[in-house]
Structures are given as C-alpha cells and as structure tokens.
Write a structure and sequence with these properties.
The structure is a single chain. By secondary structure, the protein is mainly α. It is about 65% helix and about 0% strand. Helix 2 packs antiparallel against helix 4. The longest helix is centred in the C-terminal third of the chain and has 24 residues. The mean pLDDT is about 80.
Length: about 90
C-alpha cells in the first residue's frame, strides 16, 4: 500500500503507523520533496492518536468511532494517492 499506492518508501509506512501512537514521529531525510508532501498530507489527515480514537468511542460509541476512523483513513489515502501522482516539478 505504502510503496504502490502512495509511492513512498516502505520505511515510511512504519512511521505512519507510529504516528498513530505519537504524532511526533519524525520524517527522515530519505524522502524526496514530493514524498514529503504525500507523507505529510496522509499523516495530517489521519486521526491524531489512539487516545483520540478512545475518546471518540466513549463519546459517540464504538461503531461511530470506527466509521470515523475508516472514513478518515480512506480520505487520507485517497488524497495521498492524488498527491503522489502530481508531477514532482509542480
């Protein structure tokens, strides 16, 4: 998914997973500027952390929280895919 769909190095997928635990996960200098844009977009649009998911579940219920998580992830991946397809010179 990370390499094919988002055109990011496989290692970026790991940092996206860790970003779900803590948003402070740093991006290393092994990403191109175009990849940084894609990574930042996906990372920003996904839920901030697991604590937020827990709070949503308690506030609006597990089913709705799950729907929010899935919809947010879908939007982040779709927009990330669109960003990945933009030519690097733009």
């Amino acid at each position: 998914m990370v390499e094919g769909w988002l055109r990011l190095p496989a290692a970026a997928g790991l940092t996206l997973v860790f970003a779900a635990l803590r948003k402070e996960a740093a991006v290393r200098d092994w990403l191109t500027p175009a990849q940084v844009l894609t990574y930042a977009l996906v990372n920003t649009l996904t839920l901030p952390c697991l604590a937020t998911v827990g709070l949503l579940a308690r506030t609006i219920g597990r089913a709705r929280a799950g729907a929010v998580v899935l919809l947010t992830l879908l939007v982040a991946l779709l927009l990330g895919r669109a960003a990945a397809r933009v030519p690097a010179g733009l």
